[in-house]
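Protein modeling request. Please complete all fields; requests missing the sequence field cannot be processed.
Requester role: graduate student
Desired output: 3D structure, token encoding
Chains: 1
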Amino acid sequence: MRALHRVALSMTLPWVATVLAPAAALAAAAAPAASPASAPAHASATAAAPLAQDTPSTTVAGNTFIAPAGWRLSVRGPATVLEAPEGGSWLALVDVDAADAKAALAAAWAAYKPDATWPMKVATPVAPKDGWTDRQSFSYQTSPNEKRDVSVEVRRANKLWTVIIYDMAGDVGEKRSSQVGQVMGKLLPKGYQRESFAGKVAHKIDAPRLAQLTGFIERAMAATKVPGVALGLVQDGRVIYSGGFGVKEVGKPGRPDGDTRFMIASNTKAMATLMLATLVDEQKIGWESTAVSLLPTFKLGNDETTQQVKVKHLICACTGMPRQDLEWLLEFKDMTPAGAMTLLGTMQPTSGFGELYQYSNPMAAAAGYIGGHVAHPDMELGAAYDRAMQERVFGPLKMNHTTHDFARAKQGNVAGAHAPDVEGRMTHAEDRTNLSVIPVRPAGGAWSTVNDVLRYVQMELNEGKLPDGKPLLSREALLARRAPQVKVGTDINYGMGLMVNTVYGTPVVHHGGDMIGFHSDMIWLPDHNVGAVVLTNGDPGWMVRTVFRRKLLEVLFDGRPEADAQITAQAKAFYDELAAERKLLSLPADAGVVAQLAKSYQHPVLGEIQVQRQGANLRFDFGEYASDMASRHNPDGTDSLLTVVPGFTGLEFVVGKQGDKRTLTLRDAQHEYVLVER
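Delivered output (678 residues):
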């Protein structure tokens, strides 16, 4: 499930923990997991008071970081420990003097939680960055019923090791991911100053610098096995590059180019907020208008939050509404835009209004549909949105190849979706799952090309003006979308469908998009009149799009060469983790586990699963698509069944019983769904 959760219209987080465990368990094949409630060794009867505000702090060795408001900070021995406000979830920063990474890991666990015994899966290197060297991660297996993630990274600076232990309940970790990112974003070695490009002038992207960028794309493709990438670059109002690499579809010779369509997923959000901004300019809506005043049927599961939500809040990821994607990813065949809006009425916030960054695709969809409704109140919600986008965004910008129409999108010059299979071989993805975005399409349903998205990026750089100098909208309405609404991490803020990153001193505005087999990014540096578009047609393309942002800065400002090492290490870790997961699976699924299953299971929201046995193979038919299933025996004695269809691997069902009924339990980080036999 973790892999799926990352892909579906996701934003890559500033720091994504790798599942790890103590060195004492390195030899354990399947040791029992520590109790989720097990407290660290340093825990005392008198807990530290919650921090009143974000607080600059240091570890025992003097390494700097920001401790988030509401968390409790305590120190004992070498361990600096942050406990989340919910309790029972910790982030530990342990400084040790040790001979090597393995010894540092053992010493850190001895200081933090010596009784932890999660079994190890795999160890992988991590690229040097921000003054840290000798970085390694050690991945371990937790059981799904623990509802817990444990991760460790070991790194070195100033002749000492710092061990970062992430030990959190799944719901807390997701809800507070931005605060974890805040800690990690400024965790720097004592005395170290992060590289800054503030005040520097960007170099012209001449032939040698362009070769650095295109060479990076080719090396990134080789490392990640992504079949095809299209790249676009603009500088000072001129297209510097528009072209493609690799193939549009595995097994076929066609190369992508600047007019090849890819699904751009969540990049759609920024374009939808541009449509909203044109309505603001016409005074048909205001950013402060309440959603219910514009669409009286708008409703969330919490009445108080419903009344508070303004237009700007729908798309700011700041209302406390968590991810709840499984409900539209698994049961979309008969879903309509109106049905997607009705689904919002079942959703509850899990953090305070404006308190935390929590990314909600259904909320973003509501923003687009409300805008469409205001523009065309007599039309069905989806048709009104489609027409408003064509009239106010795609048409004026001459984005002639951009569409929400999947049938049109898949005609002609189009890239296919790809993903590794369970053995790590790149193949066609099960992209029928991408049809699930159609009912929530303002959140990520657009298809586009490098050349079309470059037109959009150039308009952003021109602060709302079209190529002929005429304004599409006012500068004020355009830039309001970049104003910070909620923190994503240190020096990273989310506005309205746009993220602004000032980690390296100069603002970088961007948004990414991820659906099955498609991963993309659009990037611009408003102070330097430079923009870029990266479109990919395979998992794990999110690595290519994310690390390219660093490479672009390196080329523009002669930055430290970090991007190539990052993409190499990330790709190796991904495939090593995939191989480690494969070793834990039985495929075909274990016959004893299969024998326990009912013929079908039902959930009132997720619908029905038909259990099919085809010889030795087990297959789950979800209605919209199907997958062969593998089994895994978990450390706590439970058994899981996992999808193995490329692009949708890792959807995990825990086999169980509820009274005399057989059950399958499916979870995302903050929700649990129990499917009961029919």
